[in-house]
User: What shape does this take?
Amino acid sequence: MGQNITTYGLIGYPLGHSLSPLMHNAAFKALGVEATYELFPLKPDELDNFFSDLKQKDSPIFGLNVTFPYKEKVIPYLDSLNPYAKKVAAVNTIVISENRKLSGYNTDGPGFLAHIAELGFQPQGKRIAILGAGGATRAVLSALCMSAQRPEAIMIYDIEPEKAQSLVKDLSVNFDCGITKAVDSLDDLNVELADLLVNATPVGMKPSDIPLIDEEMLHANMLVYDLIYNPAQTALLEMAQRKGAQAANGLGMLYYQGVLAFQHWANVELPENIKKKMRDALDKGLQQRIK
Assistant: This one.
């Protein structure tokens, strides 16, 4: 951390796939701000030292994003949490003040809602099926449970059934999750009846991954949303398109949560032309990865 240029970045492990620097550095450049966004791949035994350095007066870092596997693990290091992040008990954005106080936020849930709204999906009265019960599901589920457009039912399946049950129970303390049920098998997920299927598992990141869902479970009147954005086209999304379903990857969610995170750091609403540059940088970066 010897450099003096104002620095923002992403902590997680591993981080090889991240497109976040493209988006945020495009915004800094467009705004004429002398700052940089970097990747900080941290092994678990490096967290203590990293946060100790972060609180030093000479640290150039004034904002961070947090990804897998640290969204819950960073909380003990923070000085405060905003009310939503406290309820979700997961943080993906950290704001660092001039006096080195660390404040935690979660922009994942609002980012997800913003993207499905852009896609024309309204959760109100709909049936939703979610694969996976990790940190991403925590944000998605909490956002759906507190949305003004309340779904009719949400089903969650995880390969470890107790993990899904624990997540629903945990979130029910702070959110009205009465519409949510953890199920023990894929058959009980009732994908055939769902209006929205969300993949919040890592299955699909490797070309050899076999989707958890059988193609015959999918139907044309649904949105299939894969939080994975690299690769842009997972096997699950290919199946969805073959069935005539609407299909979307998580790049839009990455964009919207990134805009919200940037606005927390800058404490300012970004103009539309800057947001467009952020999105263009993501799209271009993903296209280059595909090549």
